[in-house]
């Protein structure tokens, strides 16, 4: 299945790359610095310093790979070339897998109540969309994310936790971010990339995500997915 792009701004990727330039350059600089030091001074360095440099290279490479993978995935969605392989699966199963992919110290999201609807999903892509949302919510708060599943005419995942009002519609802030000189511009660009990619992946699955209510300090992020049997009938 090839999904059409849900992204509405053709200049999104160039704008994101401009805003992410520091976040892309910093890991490269750290990798280059650590590698050069090891090449030039390895014989003089104690084992713990060598291990520290190798750990830094490994960590920075992972960070850079994650950013580049998400940018490539967003480019495929924007071009309308991403192909989904859908299969029926319990939404609770995908959520559990997403939680397992979080760092160990942030793996505290909890399902507080609800049932277990089945949805049609390309599991790796839907799981990644949920990982990105859980990462954002966990990094925005010291409290565990509260997850509630509901089923009516659709499957709903309600993710309780603070989300800044400016991220209610991530794409609305791309121009402001690109023109910003704020020192946190790079980190905000990472947030924009995560939320935009998550939203695009969910919309490719026929779902929606949004924030409600918009007026309170700690709103609920709601992901809505069509039920598996409804999608099968529409096919």
Topology:
Blueprint: H1 12-19, H2 21-41, H3 47-79, E1 87-90, H4 91-100, E2 110-114, E3 118-121, H5 123-139, E4 146-151, E5 154-160, H6 174-178, H7 185-204, E6 208-212, E7 220-226, H8 228-234
Parallel strand pairs: 2-4
Antiparallel strand pairs: 1-3, 4-5, 5-7, 6-7
Helix pairs in contact: 2-3, 3-7, 4-5, 5-7
Task: Give a structural overview.
The chain is α+β, with helices and mostly antiparallel strands and 235 residues long. The protein has 2 domains: 12-79, Helix Hairpins (Orthogonal Bundle); 87-234, Heat Shock Protein 90 (2-Layer Sandwich), CATH 3.30.565.10. It has 8 helices and 7 strands; from the N terminus they run αααβαββαββααββα. The protein has helices at residues 12-19, 21-41, 47-79, 91-100, 123-139, 174-178, 185-204, 228-234, and strands at residues 87-90, 110-114, 118-121, 146-151, 154-160, 208-212, 220-226. A 5-stranded mixed β-sheet has the order 2-4-5-7-6. Strands 1-3 form a two-stranded antiparallel ribbon. Helix 2 (21-41) runs antiparallel to helix 3, helix 3 packs across helix 7 (185-204) and helix 4 (91-100) crosses helix 5.
Protein traits:
single chain, 235 residues, alpha+beta, Helix Hairpins, Heat Shock Protein 90, 5-stranded mixed β-sheet, 8 helices, globular, disordered N terminus
Second-tier CATH architecture of the largest domain: 2-Layer Sandwich
Helix content: 40-55%
Q: What does the average pLDDT come to? A: 81
Based on CA inertia axes, which overall geometry fits?
Answer: globular
Oligomeric grouping of the chains: single chain
CATH topology of the largest domain: Heat Shock Protein 90
The biggest beta sheet is recorded as: 5 strands, mixed
| Strand proportion | 15-25%
CA radius of gyration: 20 Å
């Amino acid at each position: 299945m090839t999904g059409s792009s849900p992204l509405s701004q053709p200049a999104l990727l160039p704008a994101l790359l401009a805003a992410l330039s520091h976040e892309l350059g910093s890991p490269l600089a750290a990798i280059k610095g650590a590698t050069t030091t090891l090449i030039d001074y390895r014989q003089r360095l104690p084992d713990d310093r060598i291990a520290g440099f190798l750990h830094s290279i490994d960590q920075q490479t992972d960070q850079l790979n994650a950013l580049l993978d998400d940018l490539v995935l967003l480019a495929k969605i924007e071009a309308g070339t991403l192909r989904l392989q859908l299969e029926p699966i319990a939404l609770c199963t995908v959520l559990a897998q997403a939680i397992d992919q979080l760092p160990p110290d942030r793996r505290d999201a909890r399902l507080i109540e609800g049932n277990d609807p089945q949805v049609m999903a390309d599991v790796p892509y839907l799981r990644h969309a949920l990982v990105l949302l859980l990462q954002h919510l966990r990094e925005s708060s010291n409290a565990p994310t509260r997850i509630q599943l509901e089923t009516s005419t659709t499957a709903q995942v309600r993710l309780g936790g603070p989300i800044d009002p400016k991220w209610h519609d991530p794409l609305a802030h791309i121009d402001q971010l690109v023109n910003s000189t704020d020192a946190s511009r790079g980190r905000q660009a990472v947030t924009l990339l995560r939320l935009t990619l998550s939203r695009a992946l969910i919309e490719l699955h026929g779902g929606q995500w949004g924030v409600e209510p918009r007026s309170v300090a700690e709103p609920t992020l709601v992901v809505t997915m069509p039920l598996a049997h409804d999608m099968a009938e529409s096919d």
